[in-house]
Amino acid sequence: MQENAIKIEFIRIPKSSLVCSVLLHGGLLSVAWITHLIAPKLGFILSSPEKKVIHESYIQVDVVGLPDTMMDYLANTDTTLPIVDNVAEPVPDLNQKIDQAEMVEEQSKEAKRVKDLEEKSAQLELKKIKKSQALAMSRLKEEQKRLEALKALKVEKGQAGRKTLKGNIASQGTAVRWAIGEAKDKWISMVAESIKNQFSIYPWQKSKKLSAVVAISLYPNGRVRERKIEKSSGDATYDSAVLRAIEAAEPLPIPADAALLEEPLIIELRPES
Amino acid sequence: MNQVIRLLLVYSITASFADAAIYLTVTGAKVKKANLMVGKVHWTAPSVLSEKLDQEVAKDLRFLNLFDFADQSITQSLDKPNAHKELDFEEASKLNLAFALKMSSWIEGPQLFLEAVLFDVAGKKRILASRYQYPVVQFPRLVHAMSEDILKELTGERGLFYSRILMSCKELGGKSSAANKEIYVVDPDARNFTQVTSDKTLSLSPAWAGNGQWISYTQYEFIRRGRISKRGTVLKRHNIRSGERKYISARDGMNSGASWSPDGETIAATLSYAGRPEIFLFPGSGMGEPTPLSRQILWRKLSGEGFQPTSVEQLFDVEPDWSPNGKEIVFSSARTGHPMIYIVNVASHEARQLTFAGQYNASPSWSPRGDKIIFAAQRTGEGNFDLYGIDPDGNNLERLTSGDAPGRRFNNENASWAPTGRHFTYASNEGGRYRVYVRTLDGRESWPISPPNRECMTPAWSPFEG
């Protein structure tokens, strides 16, 4: 009887509710099952395949630091050479010391000789020696002037090619001093340096293979007497940049040997070496 | 670029004897932007476009990244209306101008006209005088046409504006599944943002073929192999004009990171069906079997001379990118433990390590000029990714972006060069979510080109599309 009642109770549940319940449960189960299936794949999909890296060491290389400061190189193109104040500074001083030391040595030697000569009362010889002393002094002064000129080349921001200057000065001490070739060499490098410091071009000219050749001659004061484009680059703005550089570099350094001024300077200017 | 300018001193020993002249060579000029006067656009009749056109001109010329701009209040006397074809060179020279751009504009029916004259002050001549005609609504294109002409005239470069940028974007807040990414294309001025794919799946790493007609990308797809169907990556190529699509590779494992050789004859891509990710070369037609590149590589020994063959267990080569001469491929590889950038010669298979610095160097991109490679790198283990540039010979490593401001850290990655070789596009999450930006190499000009309601990455700048 009781069983019968339960059966009746059960049957009394509306059929639609029963169907709904079964469907909902089925749906829930299938969602859970699909999620379970998909979950690991979903994780794989979300991680970008390119960025997946297995760290396996084969040849361990020391980790070097990347530059941590911005190098805005287009903005920095005006300061294209490293500042070498601390490197270049002592070099002229060193040379000066060498010069002075040698001068002292020379002077003391000559003083001794003067003394000897005085003892011998050779006035003529004394005169000669004094003359040579004066010459040596004037050379020393000239050398100091040149060093000052070199210092003057250390223009604003310290971008002047001090490395080259340093090399030139350093080589002076080891070579034969006062040699004509070397003085000329030094002068030419100073001329090139002072033109280069004034030589600026536009961004689009940098990667082009441009080259202009200019012939100039100088007055003894370093001013340009004549200038002429011997070979045009084919780019008018480049040619005018070349002439502007020479104009802006005036007065150019003058050679110790004034005879060099009689020869024309043929200068080729290229954007990059 | 650490620009060490060298002085070459050449003088002839015979000079003083033979023709009595002293020869010297000066090399290493400083680079200075040209001082440009940009006149106002003078209108024959007042127009609502007036201000917009001036703004567009200014924006374009700034992005060329070639000029310094003279103050308009100073150059006013040189920029009188109805006189855009003439310039007082004397006066311009006094004002230290290198170039002057003068413009006049008018509207006839639906058409907008612009006459532009560019003067070379030093050369005292007109170097560009053109008339442009576009529908009024396309006034930015008119300005781009003028800017392209100026760019070509002065630098010989093409395609800063006549080009497009592909990227992979996820829609935010949309109804579609959050994981979906589609390929989009946009102009460098952020206009004409257009959806290319709509496959409702992950579409990644788009790339251009050299001709700008075909593109390729990686997609996640159900692949049917006999009775088994599984989800994996496939590499597709897509004709962006006709919409025609073909598979390049649908092998097991990874099929990704395609890069087309400049002549379009070869595609380099990373496949992992043989076990580990390695670079293969496909014929540009997309048909035919790939030839393995990675496992044939002869590695330059880190110490000492000579090369060593690659052992298969070492393979972990991804993200290939061709050099503009088509002879070399730059890619990233994790063979030394830390992923670093390498360059391989395609013909000889000889490879060398390009970068040694940082923790993780990835996604290299070779400049179309060939003189620089940009890559993304992580300086420290927990650090952010930033973009760095390096010469292909390993010199001049420099930092291009800075995403580690105090208290605010973000990534800059996925660089791709513009056809000019002086601009690039990249992805950054500077604003919270990833967006794609364009930028000048010196970082002076930069703007987002992907819309704010999408998360976009892996941009690819097209070649020049004339």
Summarize the structure.
Chain A has helices at 2-12, 15-46, 85-88, 90-120, 123-153, 162-174, 180-198, 236-248; strands spanning 200-201, 212-218, 224-231, 265-270.
Number of strands of chain B: 35
Shape of chain B: globular
Q: What is the typical, i.e. mean, pLDDT of chain B?
A: 88
- Quaternary state of this entry equals heterodimer
- Largest interface, counted by CB within 8 Å of the partner chain's CB: A-B, 78 and 84 residues
Work out the radius of gyration of chain B: 25 Å
**Helix segment tally of chain B:** 4
Count of helical stretches of chain A: 8
Rg of chain A: 42 Å
Strand order, main sheet of chain A: write it out: 3-2-4
- Amount of helix of chain A: 55-70%
Mean pLDDT of chain A: 70
Helix content of chain B: under 10%
Task: Provide the descriptors you would attach to this structure in a database record.
heterodimer, A: 273 residues, mainly alpha, 3-stranded antiparallel beta sheet, 8% strand, B: 466 residues, mainly beta, 6-stranded mixed beta sheet, 5-stranded mixed beta sheet, 4 helices
What does this structure look like?
The complex is a heterodimer of chains A (273) and B (466). Chain A is mostly helical and 273 residues long. Chain A has 8 helices and 4 strands; from the N terminus they run H-H-H-H-H-H-H-E-E-E-H-E. The longest helix of chain A is centred in the first third of the chain and has 32 residues, at 15-46. Chain B has 466 residues and is mainly beta. In chain B, 9% of the residues lie in helices and 45% in strands. Chain B has helices spanning 50-64, 72-75, 89-94, 139-155; strands at residues 22-27, 30-31, 34-43, 67-69, 99-108, 111-120, 125-135, 165-171, 182-186, 194-195, 203-208, 214-225, 228-239, 245-249, 255-260, 266-271, 278-283, 291-292, 298-300, 307-309, 317-322, 328-336, 338-345, 350-353, 360-366, 373-378, 385-390, 398-399, 404-405, 408-409, 412-417, 423-428, 435-440, 446-448, 454-461. In chain B, helix 1 (50-64) runs parallel beside helix 4. The longest helix of chain B has 17 residues, at 139-155. Chain B is globular and about 75 Å long. Chain B starts with 21 loop residues before the first strand and ends in a 5-residue tail after the last strand. Mean pLDDT of chain B is 88; it is low at 1-18. The interface between A and B is large, with 78 and 84 residues. Strand 4 of chain A pairs parallel with strand 1 (22-27) of chain B.
